Amino acid sequence: MPKVSLDIPSELLGDLKTHVGDEKKFISLADAIRTACRKMLDQLDSIDEFHGRR
Question: Where are the domains of the chain?
Answer without folding.
Answer: 25-54
